[in-house]
Design a protein that fits this description.
The protein is α/β, with parallel strands linked by helices. It has 27 helices and 16 strands. 49% of the residues lie in helices and 14% in strands.
């Protein structure tokens, strides 16, 4: 079995519509061979990235000589500059210091986008691009396309670090255009008027967090560390699917089966549908409280179908047979009031599916406003796109991470993601959900989802983050008059993060104690906070979870907190870098956000700057100015 070593190059013959793929193969005996394939042009890029490369992964992982399996002791103080930057050339260490120094200048950070556009106009595109590649772009972005990022990915791999790929091209649109698109995309064609609220609102009261508001229509407002997609049309969503698929193929072809691709659901469909579905989910929880008492998801109440039927009968509610037929149960009780698996895999009509019994009214109540046939089709299109991406990830044996978004979208995003886990996470965790620990309900949401995974017997994957939308969430709650969903302080968020992680570890230990595979729960600690990383490492040791169990991994952004990521990877922990890529001019909004984010974490910057200076001094003193990084590490 041969291992595909070269980057596949495709050229096009316009006349014949063919592509030429050249494969450079190194055989086990050390002999080299070159294979040239003539393929239809349409399939050339796909073949270049598809699982023909991934098919050689087994050969690579079996032959550990290629990358070695060196392990270093871990300094949990994260204060070793040599370990932090041994993957960088001296030029890259100096560049990192200069970039961080620039990120400490308030005027540059606050006006960075304007200044970049001025520089581009004055210098011309070629010179501007060269300067960006030598500074901000070169530090924070891996390359322009899936081919040019391969050297970066291979170097990361040789130092024990794996990638999460993200094609970081963002539209640079005005606030006016963003508001116009968002307002158009969040209004239903069959919208209830203020004088005629929906049936659910008439009975259960208004839920203003799910109302559209122009002040917050530009979802970039007060958000510096998360990418925002604005819906234009269904064709744009289809193009986004192709982009995400290219990411999946790239991560399969260049990372030896260990990579992840990040996806946002707002890139795959009309946001109005996520908004309405989120409202449905939260109203359903309110009706559960009315029927059963208490709070939260019906799954946590362990109410049997018979108990539910009796409650409804005693309340005199008629015509509940169709509702009860669709209730999802197991031996412990009701799991879902609605047939979610059918909703995300079959052609259920949403308007007819989301009906619940109201004890107050003594009848069945529709939870969702009537949707037009076009909107029903749009929802099915969105689900189809998610299915397409997860199927691609499954075929390529890589993973897909669904990013968290605003709280008014998140219930729907989490529900769709959990059903994708139920469908695809049968033998391993392919789909991961993201949980934002600045939210007061974070631990309850994770606990509920862990229980669903246990009861429905699928692998659970989660990325834990502090969160990207806290300032926007607080401002929106205050303006629209609903309870603030966020924790009051940074310390409270840290405590929520640690409690949530501890609950996940407790469940992993329970699996081990029962003799079940601990890999049924996989957690990514996505944090730039070294106290949180230290907490996670200590808890792993306390509970008896080792890096080799492959259940806990750590993740940070490319160009940030290298002093955490690389020592972890070199010590044998599962460590990831979030890898953005894309053409220079089209990732300027991403670079703008990175500069603003670094301004907000000056304490971390000061430590990293100090370590960078120390490493520069060490290399000068030892005559290693022309140090050439060569890793001998094998990622977990």
């Amino acid at each position: 079995m041969a291992f595909l070593r070269g980057v596949i190059r495709c050229s096009v013959s316009r006349k014949y519509g063919t592509g030429v793929s050249i494969y450079n193969l190194t055989l086990r005996g050390g002999k080299s061979s070159r294979i040239r394939l003539f393929l239809p042009f349409q399939s050339c890029n796909q073949i270049a990235l598809k699982s023909v490369t991934a098919g050689a992964i087994n050969d690579l992982t079996a032959d550990k000589k290629s990358f070695g399996s060196k392990r270093d002791p871990l300094d949990t103080g994260f204060a070793d500059p040599k370990a932090a930057f041994k993957s960088k050339t001296t030029y890259e260490v100096l560049r990192a210091y200069i970039v961080y120094q620039l990120c400490s200048i308030n005027y540059l950070v606050e006006n960075n986008m304007k200044l970049m556009k001025i520089c581009k106009t004055l210098l011309g595109e070629r010179l501007f691009t060269a300067i960006m590649k030598a500074t901000f772009y070169g530090h924070f972005v891996a390359g322009e396309d899936q081919y040019k990022i391969v050297p970066t990915l291979k170097r990361l791999h040789s130092f024990g670090v794996k990638p999460i790929l993200d094609y970081s091209v963002e539209e640079d649109i005005s606030q006016e255009e963003a508001e116009k698109r968002e307002l158009a995309a969040t209004q239903s064609e069959v919208q209830a008027t203020p004088t005629q609220p929906s049936e659910a609102a008439q009975i259960g009261g208004e839920m203003p967090q799910y109302n559209v508001n122009k002040t917050f229509a530009d979802r970039r407002y007060k958000v510096s560390s998360a990418r925002t997609y604005f819906y234009l049309n269904e064709a744009t969503c289809e193009r986004n699917v192709e982009i995400f698929q290219d990411c999946l193929h790239a991560v399969a072809g260049a990372t030896y089966g260990t990579g992840i691709t990040a996806v946002k659901l707002t890139a795959l469909g009309r946001p109005q549908l996520l908004l309405q579905l989120s409202e449905v989910i939260m109203r359903a929880r309110n009706f559960v409280s009315e029927i059963i008492g208490g709070r939260g998801n019906v799954l946590g109440h362990h109410m049997t179908a018979e108990m539910l039927e009796k409650k409804l009968k005693d309340a005199g509610i008629k015509d509940t047979s169709k509702f009860l037929e669709k209730v999802v149960t197991d031996s412990e009780g009701v799991i879902h009031l609605f047939p979610w698996s059918g909703i995300v895999t079959e052609n259920f009509e949403l308007s007819d599916t989301f009906r619940v019994p109201s004890l107050k009214e003594g009848r069945m109540v529709r939870l969702i406003s009537q949707l037009s046939k076009k909107e029903e089709e749009m929802f099915r299109n969105m689900v189809r796109r998610v299915n397409t991406l997860v199927q691609t990830a499954q075929e390529l044996d890589v993973r897909i991470m669904i990013d968290a978004e605003q709280t008014y979208f998140q219930p729907a995003i989490s529900r769709i993601t959990l059903e994708m886990m139920h469908k695809y996470n049968i033998e391993k965790a392919i789909v991961f959900n993201t949980y934002q620990c600045y939210l007061k309900e974070a631990i309850n949401e994770v606990t509920t989802d862990l229980e669903q995974a246990q009861r429905q017997n699928f692998y659970f994957g989660a990325k834990l983050v502090r969160g990207a939308y806290i300032d926007q969430e607080r401002a929106r709650a205050a303006a629209l008059g609903y309870p603030d969903p966020t924790n009051p302080t940074y310390e409270a968020t840290s405590d929520m993060y640690h409690r949530t992680f501890t609950e996940c570890l407790r469940r992993i230990k329970a699996l081990k104690d029962r003799g079940e595979p601990p890999q049924k729960i996989a957690i990514m600690v996505a944090s730039h906070n070294e106290d949180t990383v230290r907490f996670a490492i200590e808890k792993m040791k306390e509970i008896g979870v080792s890096p080799e169990d492959k259940v806990i991994c750590f993740g940070q952004l490319l160009g940030m907190c290298d002093y955490i990521t690389f020592p972890l990877g070199q010590a044998g922990y599962s460590a990831y870098k979030y890898i953005p890529y894309g053409p220079v001019n089209e990732v300027l909004p991403y670079l703008s956000r990175r500069a603003q984010e670094n301004k907000g974490v000056l304490k971390k910057i000061q430590k990293e700057k100090k370590l960078l200076l120390t490493e520069l001094g060490r290399r000068l003193a030892k005559g290693k100015i022309f140090y050439n990084p060569k890793g001998e590490y094998q990622p977990v």
